[in-house]
Amino acid sequence: MAKASKSSPKKAARVVQAGRIYVQATFNNTIVTVTDEKGNVIAWSSTGGAGFKGSRKSTPYAATVTVEEAMDKARALGLRNAELYIKGPGPGRDAALRVIKNSGVSLSVIADVTPLPHNGTKARKMKHG
After folding, report:
1. What is the rounded distance in angstroms from the CA atom of residue 99 to the CA atom of residue 64?
2. How far is the C-alpha of 29 from the C-alpha of 86, rounded, in Å?
3. 27: Cβ contacts below 8 Å, ≥ 6 apart
4. What total number of domains does the chain contain?
5. Which pLDDT belongs to residue 86?
6. The pTM is what?
7. Coil vs helix vs strand at 101
8. For residue 94, is it within any domain?
9. Is 95 among the domain residues?
10. In the predicted model, what is the mean pLDDT of residues 2-9?
11. CA-CA distance, 75 to 6, in Å (whole number)?
12. Is residue 113 part of a domain?
């Protein structure tokens, strides 16, 4: 029996015309995920992966670089039309939107999917002293 090579089989580069872009902008990080219409991830990027560390991760500039990186990967796979879903209150929100609008990908939907509690958990008891 011949032994199979150790490297895993590489997926064939697929062309994705339309997809979805998810931007998660927290106070500490910005994560961008690009999926096809079915929800399979085709490209992603984060501020840490873009080379930022510590407090520099939570800047609009770091978010800009991160979104550009993700969009370049997605455009290389042929992304033309997309729906944009932004989640979270972080500093990367507006920067991400600006970069995606200027990237040449046409947006059909721009939605804010930030979760808002309908009067969630009970607040902490008051500190007195």
Report:
1. 6
2. 13
3. 58, 89, 90, 91
4. 1
5. 94
6. 0.81
7. helix
8. yes
9. yes
10. 55
11. 30
12. no
